[in-house]
Each structure stands twice: as structure tokens, then as C-alpha cells.
Amino acid sequence: MKKILLSALTVGLVSLSFGHIIAAPGDADDPIITLSYIQSVLMPSITKQIEEKTAPTFIVVNVEAGKSVICEAGTELILRKGKATVISTEKGGLANVTSGVDLPDGTVLPANSLVIVPLADGRGVHADDDLILMIKGGYTVK
Asked: Which among 1, 16, 59, 124 could disulfide-bond with 70, CB atoms 3.0 to 4.6 Å apart, if both were Cys?
């Protein structure tokens, strides 16, 4: 009796295993991903997600003389052409990270220095001449 039960169990296990072995590749039981799917669907999706999560890039902004650029917190500025003065508040000025100093209100903005606006409290720069600025982050021209 034990031999019959053991034989039946062995045949059942072999049949079950054989069913998985002969499963067609690519069907619902054994999905495969092709190289064309990776290149045309998966990689563009991953690239798009990475681009959406990365930091913004610098944009070139032309500002007419007499106008002001008011920045949001964390905005980065680089003066490329013209003369501008700093607009600050009683809480402080703009951080010149190139020279490691704080630029108080009315200071001439140095050319080709990376300047960061620490708070969105009305800080920015006033254009004494026509300016070319590189800006990364939020701002408004008034």
C-alpha cells in the first residue's frame, strides 16, 4: 500500500514539475522583457522621472535698467553683464558664496560671482544698467 501511495505521489510531483518546465516563455505564467521594451518604454520612463526630480538649470534673463528682480528662497544668481545693486531686508542680504560674504542692501553686485537668496522676503537685485543674469530658481521682474 505504501509503495502505491509513494508511486502516486512521485508521479504527481513529476507531472507538476514538468508542467512548469514546458510553460511557454513570455506568457502570463512566465513573462519576459525584451530589449526593445527596455529601450523604447522602460528607459524613457526612468529618464523622465530622473529629469523631473533633478534641480533646475540656470536660465539667461535680460533685465532692463530701472527694474528689480525679486527672488524666492534658494534662488541662485550670477551677474554676467551690467551693474546691479543688492536689495536686502533687515534680516540680512544676499549670500555671495564665491567670496564667502554677505552682501548688504545697496552693495554693488559683483560680476561672475554665485549669489544665493536665503529667504523669500523681498530680496533681490535692482538693475542700474541693462543686465544679463543667469538665474536658477524662482523670481519675478518688477
From this structure: 124
CATH number of residue 90's parent domain = 2.60.120.10
- Residue span of the structural domain in which 104 resides: 59-141
User: Could you tell me the maximum CA-CA distance found in the chain, to the nearest angstrom?
Assistant: 103
**pLDDT grade for 47, boundaries at 50, 70 and 90:** confident
Query: In the predicted model, is pLDDT for residue 87 greater than 60?
Result: yes
Same domain, 39 and 70: no
pTM of the complete model: 0.61
Backbone φ and ψ for 94, nearest 5 degrees, come out as -100, 145
Give the model's pLDDT for residue 75: 92
What cell does 15 get?
507531472
Q: How many CA atoms lie within 13 A of 20 on its CB side?
A: 5
CA 114 – CA 130 distance, rounded (Å): 19
Do 77 and 115 form a contact (C-beta atoms < 8 A)?
Answer: yes
Whether residue 66 sits in one domain with residue 108: yes
Q: Residues 10, 65: one domain?
A: no
Nine-digit cell string for 82: 551690467
